[in-house]
Amino acid sequence: MSYQSLILTKKSAKDLSKLQKQFNANVKKIEELKANIVSEKEMLRRIMTRIQAEIVPLEHKHNNQLIELVYVFDRHYDNPFFKKKERAKMAEFIIDRTVELIENLGMDNLKPLYEKYANRSYDEVNSQADTITADLMKNMIEAKYGIEVDKNADLSNPQKIQDYIALKLEEKKTNAHSQNPPKEKTAKQIEKEEKLKQEAKNISKVARSIYTDLVKAFHPDREQDETERERKTEIMKLVTQAYEKDDLFELLRLKIELQDSDIESITIADEQLKYYNKILKET
Q1: Where does the source fall among the domains of life (predicted)?
Q2: 247 and 205, same structural domain?
Q3: Residue 202 forms part of a structural domain
């Protein structure tokens, strides 16, 4: 289905009202955004396919060669051919690469090799590094967000850090709110809020109305003709799918395209157009 089926047209563009022009502009903008999403998804699919087909095999090959090289350096480390400085570089290479392989690939079998050249326990070093990282993270959070991090706070991964910060900021906001209660709203503010609530209700009402109209017009159970019943069944699948996804743009498109076969004759009341425009802007 093309967005052209939604565009309100007349013999002359000058005959379109301001709301109708706004409606058409919203329709075009949403269709462009949807087309971009489809294009981006397809591009991402192609990229992921190439990664799996080309990059992943190379990564496996690289890791295998890296493992082999680590063991080669280990086997020849004591060879008198190498000088002290060269052996130091070999040891440094083995330490760095084993850490990389253990952390990235979970190759715990390389821990003894790491410990052989690092002269310390991998798990102890890792634990110390975690402690240092946690302290740095705690100091950064406290400095940046102005919150006190609990001693037993779990900051072991990015998601937990994000959740913890959100929780503490909400607590901070609640405490500040209780200490400084908001000022009493003016009559003008109350009136504005009520107006916004009413508009939200009207938009929701229009959306439900679109769905209801489509169900009434195309419910297959009321159709006697078998061919027409099958057609309406397929239409209702589209309608239900759009409704379940809360795709108001698609519902509106289905309503206009299916219920009004003659685009030139479509007439939509200004009040209805007003809420259609709001729906399209929020879609």
Answers
A1: Bacteria
A2: yes
A3: yes
